[in-house]
Write a structure and sequence with these properties.
Number of strands of chain A: 4
Number of domains of chain A: 1
Shape of chain A: globular
Low-confidence stretches of chain A: 1-14
Distance between the termini of chain A: 54 Å
Mean pLDDT of chain A: 82
Radius of gyration of chain A: 21 Å
Shape of chain B: globular
Oligomer: heterodimer
Number of helices of chain B: 13
Mean pLDDT of chain B: 81
Helix content of chain A: over 70%
Strand order of the largest sheet of chain A: 1-4
CATH topology of chain A: ABC transporter involved in vitamin B12 uptake, BtuC
Order of helices and strands of chain A: HHHHHHEEEHHHHEHHH
Helix content of chain B: over 70%
Strand content of chain B: under 5%
Radius of gyration of chain B: 20 Å
Number of strands of chain B: 2
Strand content of chain A: under 5%
CATH architecture of chain A: Orthogonal Bundle
Structural class of chain A: mainly alpha
Chain lengths: 332, 320
């Protein structure tokens, strides 16, 4: 359903300037249903992006590492959720109870995996040149995705649930209860995370390490443990998003982590890398932009990824600090 | 070898000897590489051609990653630009293959400037992700445009004619790629200790100090980027001519990672190491046929182990 915004606007432009605003409003109203539907789609997509972006941003904030493996943790989370769901479906069915159960267990498992990765691969590299740790992260990412590929033979797995297709129907705009629940759970996770970072001692330690690691060590903070905790939280958020994506799209594939990793990084940069509210805002912004981007004339869905990556490159060039990031002064 | 600089005069006697030995070894190796295809079957020739081809790509990426210390995760894009330029110009416009080379090289260098120019100011990890995004953009664009043949790619790319001989047999391309690889080695070798090479080394070790010494940080990096792109572009041209058909799936992210792996395995920044890395890359799946789809998994594990335990690569340079 490509929407030809441009054509009516160009007709309008020939009229008096003061009529223009009015005219755009009319066009917007006449396509209101499409706009609202895309807004809803964008928010759902954006909440996945935001959850994954949070892990990126937290790890980056604390050890300045671009964790390439993060997108793959999302993918692994989806697969672990699938395994647990099939294990518990005999007991709990395939409704929300089973999904919640598999989501929580998957978050725990992938969180632990994140900690193991940090301990084995990143910890020894923390003082190495940046190039080495980036290549290490790349290697971890490939081990995860190719490992899952080897296990699943590279096939798509159907993530079956019996959530039904009911939903809120506003004429031309339709939002299923599943979509609504996914957005709500993402929001709950983000609220819990915000409270954790701002109200607990561990959260305080995390924020402190992001500012000055050496000073924290001198103040008696167990820096390694807090870094591990950050990896745990980031990875489990990615796993939650992975399970949600399984529920939403109904299928899983080993390659799904690659693109979402890039997108989530874009989201983190849009919001300002290192900033937790920035990652949430950036995720939603990217989701909504992408949903509308595919509606522009001459931009079909096959160009969707070009749109996102182009946006990322443009943003890094024009405003690398993002919406909520602080300008970083590099000390020597 | 010119040994007229004062540094070399002071110790020329002990310096010359290993150098002469090395030259001898190199000539013997080149002779072996020249003779091998005459007594090997088509399969061996094909594999070795592929190995020389990857040698060129790895040496090109080595300039970016090894010399200048920048992580480029979209190197396949430059290779794609070269291959597609040649492919489009010969198959759609009927241009002579040899005439497309300068065009293709300029196009890939231009791509290097377009992507490198604005992003090389950024932190190195941002650069990694931007190049990754760029690599994907190039592949998706090639997939969706009509002129690039869409998902099925281009077919019927003209074989080059060299002094009346049509280059069509495996053995022809073996010598083409061997010659290109030797050129790539020579260029890399000459660059290594040149003024530019030393500037790269300085920027790689300490960017701020290098800038304080008056090195144009961004300009020097851009040179690395564009020269790397040039290598990729040339390799792409001949790749298109050899295969006569190219499709976007040749230029995926895994292709870029594979090339990077060759550089990492051999030890970043070392020419013999990188050649060994490229050969390991090509020979490994041929020797261990059984691994099949596990190839990338094993490569990834190798990459991780190398980074953790032997960051200088499988053939480290002896410290002088």
């Amino acid at each position: 359903m490509p929407l030809l915004f441009c054509f009516p606007v160009s007709v309008c432009c020939k009229r008096e300037p003061e009529v223009l605003g009015n005219c755009i409003w009319n066009i917007a109203m006449s396509h209101l249903d499409i706009i609202l539907q895309q807004l809803a789609n964008g928010v759902i997509l954006g909440s996945f992006y935001a959850l994954v972006a949070l892990g990126y941003t937290m790890v980056y904030g604390i050890i300045k590492l671009l964790n390439f493996a993060h997108g793959d943790l999302y993918m692994v989370g989806g697969f672990v959720g699938f395994v647990i769901l099939s294990a518990v479906s005999g007991l709990l069915g395939e409704g929300w109870a089973a999904i919640t159960c598999s989501m929580v267990l998957s978050m725990l498992a992938v969180g632990l995996l994140g900690v193991i990765i940090q301990r084995v691969a990143y910890q020894p590299m923390l003082n190495a040149p940046r190039l080495s740790i980036l290549i290490t992260a790349l290697a971890v990412s490939m081990i995860l995705s190719n490992g899952v590929m080897a296990v699943t033979d590279g096939e798509y797995l159907a993530f079956t649930t019996d959530l039904g297709y009911d939903g809120l129907d506003f004429g031309n705009v339709f939002i299923s209860y599943t979509q609504l629940m996914l957005v709500v759970s993402a929001a709950v996770l983000m609220i819990v995370l915000t409270l954790f970072v701002h109200k607990t001692l561990y959260g305080k330690a995390m924020r402190a390490i992001a500012i000055d690691q050496d000073a924290c060590r001198l103040m008696g903070i167990n820096v390694n443990r807090i870094i591990a905790l950050t990896f745990f939280i980031g990875s489990s958020l990615a796993a939650a998003a992975g399970v949600m994506a399984g529920v939403y799209y109904g299928s899983l594939h080993f390659s799904m982590g690659f693109v979402i990793g890039l997108k989530a990084f874009t989201a983190a940069v849009i919001g300002g890398i290192g900033s937790i509210p920035g990652a949430m805002l950036g995720g939603l912004t990217l989701g909504i932009l992408e949903a509308f981007g595919t509606q522009l004339p001459f931009v079909g869905s096959e160009w969707k990824d070009v749109f996102s990556f182009g946006l990322l490159i443009l943003l890094l060039i024009v405003k690398p600090t993002g919406m909520l990031g602080k300008t970083e002064i590099e000390r020597m | 070898m010119g040994n007229s600089t004062p540094r070399e005069i002071t110790g020329w006697a002990d310096w010359l000897k290993p150098q002469r030995n090395r030259l001898l070894v190199l000539m013997v190796m080149a002779a072996i590489a020249m003779v091998i295809p005459l007594m090997a079957n088509n399969y061996v020739i094909e594999v070795l051609t592929n190995a020389w081809f990857y040698t060129i790509l790895c040496l090109g990426l080595n300039i970016v990653v090894g010399y200048a210390g920048l992580l480029d995760l979209g190197y396949a894009a430059f290779f794609a630009v070269g291959a597609y330029t040649t492919g489009i110009l010969t198959s759609k416009f009927g241009m002579n293959f040899w005439l497309t080379i300068p065009v293709a090289v300029s196009c890939s260098m231009l791509a290097g400037i377009i992507i490198g120019g604005p992003t090389l100011r950024l932190r190195s990890d941002y650069l990694a992700i931007v190049t990754l995004g760029f690599g994907e953009i190039v592949r998706i664009v090639a997939r969706n445009l009509e002129i690039t043949g869409g998902a099925s790619g281009l077919i019927g790319i003209e074989r080059p004619v060299f002094f009346g001989i049509e280059l069509s047999k495996g053995i022809h391309f073996y010598y083409v790629f061997l010659l290109l690889a030797i050129c790539a080695c020579y260029v890399s070798y000459r660059l290594q200790d040149s003024r530019l090479g030393r500037a790269w080394q300085y920027v790689r070790e300490d960017e701020d100090a290098a800038e304080a010494m008056g090195i144009d940080r961004v300009g020097v990096k851009l040179y690395a980027y564009v020269i790397g792109a040039m290598f990729g572009g040339i390799a792409g041209c001949f790749f298109a001519a050899k295969m006569t058909a190219i499709s976007p799936e040749t230029f995926t992210f895994s292709q870029s990672v594979l090339i990077l792996l060759g550089v990492v395995m051999g030890g970043m920044g070392k020419i013999p190491g990188v050649i060994v890395g490229a050969f390991a890359l090509v020979l490994f799946p041929e020797v261990f046929r059984g691994v099949g789809s596990m190839r990338m998994l094993i490569f990834a594990i190798v990459m991780l182990v190398i980074m953790l335990y032997r960051p200088e690569g499988i053939w480290p340079r002896t410290k002088s």
